[in-house]
Structure formats: structure tokens, C-alpha cells
TrEMBL record:
<protein>
    <recommendedName>
        <fullName>Hexosyltransferase</fullName>
        <ecNumber>2.4.1.-</ecNumber>
    </recommendedName>
</protein>
<feature type="signal peptide">
    <location>
        <begin position="1"/>
        <end position="32"/>
    </location>
</feature>
<dbReference type="GO" id="GO:0016757">
    <property type="term" value="F:glycosyltransferase activity"/>
</dbReference>
<dbReference type="Pfam" id="PF01501">
    <property type="entry name" value="Glyco_transf_8"/>
</dbReference>
<comment type="similarity">
    <text>Belongs to the glycosyltransferase 8 family.</text>
</comment>
<keyword id="KW-0328">Glycosyltransferase</keyword>
<dbReference type="GO" id="GO:0005794">
    <property type="term" value="C:Golgi apparatus"/>
</dbReference>
<dbReference type="InterPro" id="IPR029044">
    <property type="entry name" value="Nucleotide-diphossugar_trans"/>
</dbReference>
<keyword id="KW-0325">Glycoprotein</keyword>
<comment type="pathway">
    <text>Glycan metabolism; pectin biosynthesis.</text>
</comment>
<keyword id="KW-1133">Transmembrane helix</keyword>
<keyword id="KW-0735">Signal-anchor</keyword>
<dbReference type="InterPro" id="IPR050748">
    <property type="entry name" value="Glycosyltrans_8_dom-fam"/>
</dbReference>
<keyword id="KW-0732">Signal</keyword>
<dbReference type="InterPro" id="IPR002495">
    <property type="entry name" value="Glyco_trans_8"/>
</dbReference>
<keyword id="KW-0472">Membrane</keyword>
<keyword id="KW-0812">Transmembrane</keyword>
Length: 400
């Protein structure tokens, strides 16, 4: 038995090398020099992080189910059967990103058909990804913070000013041209459903798809200076804009490139920046430019794919509940992050679900148990206990 385990360990390590060989080879600086396409983004600085500051447990191995299309070990990033996901990795949200990837793999029927595009400002993080997911298909892209720094204005929460928050604006330029569609995911969420269902969403003639919230007060995302200037506010004249959250988006990169949406987003950021403190047209970070360009032109996706706001409001980070309806993805947008609340022993009830995917440190199982206990005790949620335990059970069933 031991021998068998050993041998299978060897085989999977060997396969990991084969699968990862292309991404290792394309890692700096070879491709950065060879391909002018990536130059602005793949200019690596000398800085390499010391990954030993973080330690992640290795996720359990994942395999495609029998009904999945086989993805050849030698297939490239351009293989049309792959599902593409883009997510940022930075030190502050690293634990969240790793948990998000873990949850995607756990709930996918065909996890080996998923390709991850990681956007980093610190190339040393590659080692960490490998330590948690030795068999993962992925590529790491360096996102140069200077690319957006000149465009970022201060916002209500300093975390919103991080340059990597703006990397989603540049996916169409950064990813290979053969990647025509990508799902962008924030780092503070977990999937509890198969992401392939979201991948197959029809966008029609739209460039991005996201759940829309037409009852939200759209006015409050922009300042009175914006609304009182007809040249600015007129941008919404011939559409019915609704709020949507940019943390989960299905993006048609082919259309995005054709219409040069990156440039349109940058233009709004320049207007915001040029206005100075008294002339700002919005208060939040990367969201408003997206609303300016896309609100009213979004392919609506079922709300189950972004149950957002679980981090609470932007000031206090208080506990929030799920919106009514089915749940495929839980998103801790807002200032409270589940890992921080779990560490400080003050978790919100739903944080127990996040803890299930946490791979950080050796004690994470204990954290999950403690979180579940705390959640069972908590009376702060208006949601009946059976509801939470139903989600919990479905999560556990998926994990079996
Ligand atoms: C991948 O390997 C298979 C068989 O091992 C071969 O037929 C195919 O041409 C290879 N594809 C590429 C892209 O190298
Ligand atoms: C929407 O928000 C604006 C600005 O915060 C406010 O003035 C307005 O009264 C709000 N509208 C509704 C219907 O709540």
C-alpha cells in the first residue's frame, strides 16, 4: 500500500512537471523579451518575495470526471476546451486567492480543464501556488503597478487603491490573444458550484456579463459634480444603468480588444484624477469606471453567481447575510474579510463556509471547526439556522 502511494506520488509529481513545463519556460525573462505583446506588463523588477513567510497546505489532488473532454498533457494555453479564470495574487489577499482557487477545483466536474491566469506584482509567488496545487494548469503574469499608479486617485478605503485592483482593466491586453473569454474573480470569494456553468453563459452581443442590481441606488456611485455636469452625466443618456459588482465577470476578450475598452476606462480615470479633490466624479476605486463604460450594457447573469457584500459595509465591516435565492458563489466584498475575522476570533456566521477552503498554515482545520462552532452560536444572522446548515451540507457533500 505504502509502495503504491509512493509510486502514485511519483507519477503525479512527474505529470506536474510535464503540465507546468510550458509555464515554467515562459516565466521571466524569456517571453518578456521575445514577445513585444507582453512587454509593458512583464517587465520584472528585481524584487522576489520570501515565500517562507507564508505557508499553505497542499490541496487534495483533483481529477476530471469520466464525462469530461480529455485535455492532453501537452495541450497549450490556446486549447479551446479550456476554461480560463483570471485572479490576482498579492500578499495581502493571498490567503483569499488560494482559497478561491481551492473552491473552484473542489466544485468543478472537470478541474483539469481549468486554466488559471494569475496576475501578480511580485513574481516570487509562483512557488507558493505550486506548493498548494502541484498539478494546477496556470500561468503567472507580472502586472506593473506603475501602469496604473498615475491614474489612481484616493478612495474611501485604502485597499481599493491597490494597483492590482485595476489589473482586471487590462486582461484583454495581458492574456494571450487566443484566449477569447475569461472569468475574472476577486480574491475574497469562494465557489460552491461548478464554474463551467458560469463559463457557458451566453453574452449575446455584450462584452461583459455580471449579475445586475437595478434596485440599487445608482446615483450614489457618483458625486454631485458628476451628475450636475451634462457632459459627464450625459454618458448614461441612452441607457438604463444598473449597478453591478466587478468582482465576478464573464468577459469576452475578443470584443473587448476590438472596441478598445481598456482605453475607455482609462479615459474616465483620467477625468477623475484631473479633477483634483474638489472635482472628483466618484469616491470608490476601480468600480466606477466600469460602471461608466458598461452599466446598462451588461449581459445579466443569475444572481447566484455573485452573492456579494458578505464583508459588510466599507467602514465597520459588520456581518451581512446572503441575498434571497440560490447560491453558487459567496463574495466577501466590503471591508471585513473572513480570514481576518477568523484570526481575531470574531467570525460572522458565513465565514465558516470560507474557512472550509482555507489552506493557510497547518492549523486551518482547527480554524474551520472553531468557525463552525462560532457560527452555530451566533444569533447575529436573521437567516434561519437550517439555511446555513443546508449550504454547509452541500459544501461538505461536494468535498467528499
Ligand atoms: C500532444 O501529444 C499527442 C500524442 O502524445 C500528439 O499526437 C499531439 O500532436 C501533441 N500535441 C501537441 C500540441 O504537441
Ligand atoms: C440615492 O442616492 C442619492 C445620493 O446619495 C440621494 O440623494 C437620493 O436621495 C437617493 N435616492 C433614493 C431613491 O434613495
Amino acid at each position: 500500500m505504502m509502495l503504491l502511494l509512493r509510486i502514485s506520488g511519483f507519477i503525479s509529481a512527474f505529470m506536474a512537471i510535464i503540465v507546468l513545463a510550458p509555464s515554467l519556460q515562459s516565466f521571466p525573462p524569456a517571453e518578456a523579451i521575445r514577445s513585444s505583446h507582453f512587454d509593458p506588463y512583464l517587465r520584472f523588477p528585481g524584487r522576489i518575495s520570501s515565500p517562507d513567510r507564508f505557508s499553505f497546505r497542499q490541496a487534495s489532488p483533483f481529477r476530471n470526471a469520466a464525462e469530461c473532454a480529455t485535455v492532453a498533457e501537452n495541450s497549450t494555453i490556446c486549447d479551446p476546451s479550456l476554461v480560463h479564470i483570471a485572479i490576482t495574487l498579492d500578499e495581502e489577499y493571498l490567503r483569499g486567492s488560494i482559497a478561491a482557487v481551492h473552491s473552484v477545483l473542489q466544485h468543478a466536474l472537470c478541474p483539469q480543464s481549468i486554466f488559471f491566469h494569475f496576475l501578480v506584482s511580485d513574481p516570487g509567488l509562483q512557488t507558493l501556488v505550486l506548493s498548494a496545487f502541484p498539478d494546477l494548469r496556470f500561468k503567472i503574469y507580472y502586472f506593473d503597478p506603475d501602469r496604473v499608479r498615475r491614474l489612481i486617485s484616493t478612495s474611501v478605503r485604502s485597499a481599493l487603491e491597490q494597483p492590482l485592483n485595476y489589473a482586471r482593466n487590462y486582461l484583454a491586453d495581458i492574456l494571450e490573444p487566443c484566449v477569447r473569454r475569461v472569468i475574472y474573480l476577486d480574491s475574497d470569494l469562494v465557489l460552491v458550484d461548478d464554474i463551467a456553468k458560469l463559463w457557458r453563459t451566453r453574452l449575446g452581443s455584450r462584452t461583459i456579463g455580471a449579475p445586475e442590481y437595478c434596485h440599487a441606488n445608482f446615483t450614489k456611485y457618483f458625486t454631485s459634480r458628476f451628475w450636475s455636469n451634462p457632459r459627464l452625466a450625459g454618458t448614461f443618456a441612452d441607457r438604463r444603468p444598473c449597478y453591478f459588482n466587478t468582482g465576478v465577470m464573464v468577459m469576452d476578450l475578443h470584443q473587448w480588444r476590438k472596441a478598445a475598452f481598456t482605453r475607455r476606462i482609462e479615459k474616465w480615470m483620467e477625468i477623475q484624477k484631473g479633477g483634483g479633490l474638489s472635482g472628483r466624479i466618484y469616491e470608490l476605486g476601480s468600480l466606477p469606471p466600469f460602471l461608466l463604460v458598461f452599466a446598462g450594457h451588461v449581459a445579466p447573469i443569475e444572481h447566484r453567481w455573485n452573492q456579494h457584500g458578505l464583508g459588510g459595509d466599507n467602514v465597520k465591516g459588520s456581518c451581512r447575510d446572503l441575498h434571497p435565492g440560490p447560491v453558487s458563489l459567496l463574495h466577501w466584498s466590503g471591508s471585513g474579510k473572513p480570514w481576518a475575522r477568523l484570526d481575531s476570533n470574531r467570525p460572522c456566521p458565513l465565514d465558516a463556509i470560507w474557512a472550509h477552503y482555507d489552506l493557510y498554515g497547518p492549523t486551518s482545520t482547527a480554524t474551520a471547526t472553531a468557525a463552525a462552532a462560532a457560527a452555530a452560536d451566533s444569533s447575529s444572522s436573521s437567516r434561519p439556522a437550517w439555511f446555513l446548515s443546508n449550504i454547509w451540507l452541500s459544501v461538505q457533500a461536494h468535498l467528499m
